[in-house]
Amino acid sequence: MKKSSQLHFLESLADPFGGDEVFDDVLDTVYFVKDEDGRYVFVNETLVKRCGGGGKDDLLGKTAGEVFPGPLGKDFESQDRAILAGGAAIRSQLELHIYPDGRQGWCLTWKRPLKGGEGRVVGLAGISRDVDGIASSPKDLESLAEVMEYVKRHLDQPLRLGDLAEATGLSTYQINQRMETLLGLSPKQYISRCRIDAACHLLGNSSDPLTEIALTCGYSDQSSFTRQFGRIVGMTPSVYRNQRRAV
Fold first, then answer.
1. Is the dihedral of CA 154, 156, 160, 166 positive or negative?
2. Quick check: pTM over 0.85?
3. pLDDT tens digits, residue range 37-52?
4. Looking at the structure, do residues 16 and 41 belong to the same domain, yes or no?
5. Which residue has the higher pLDDT, 134 or 143?
6. What is the CA radius of gyration of the chain?
7. Cα pseudo-dihedral 212, 217, 218, 220, rounded to 10
8. Nearest-angstrom CA–CA distance, 32 and 14
9. Structural domains counted in the chain
10. Is residue 84 helix, strand or coil?
């Protein structure tokens, strides 16, 4: 469907469609849309209930720092600011959420920027889905989150499974089992996805040479980067960059 058809459809609606009503009955998922200042524009009932009840109007117009207590809210705001400033989208990031009503739980979070007609970032949308029954204790999930964060911080390094185990205190078996259960990916597949995600962000938001992007994302050279990128994305890095610039 062409964008003009999508725009025509949205304009035909009696009320603005923010997606929140679709998620109102999804009890294990928080849904939100924020504006360019990181303030809530749409929220679902699950987020409202976990923030102490009331109604959606109690959250609209507020930032994460005004809704979530202490350092957690500041971390969420910092995360939002990075995306709104053109940073990479977040995909299945394991996070511990502590809600104002005292509820605490592990979630997988997705966030992506929303762009206006001229390509400028004008907001973001995201979900956080509860993680239940994945591991035997919150400490297990905390350790897995550490593995995932370690991968993202060290993409320019070889990232062997044994190194991940040594850095995080988990066995290779534990890393394999928990990542397969949580994400449906092996550690090797997760690392590959993180490398491709980082490469896509750099290709679309920087003018760095392909060789430099390849090294930054952990590939030995541009040739190996081009081969794997093409296999997973379906086009070469150069073609991907040109398409992103044409949007």
1. negative
2. no
3. 999 999 999 999 988 8
4. yes
5. 143
6. 20
7. -40
8. 21
9. 2
10. helix
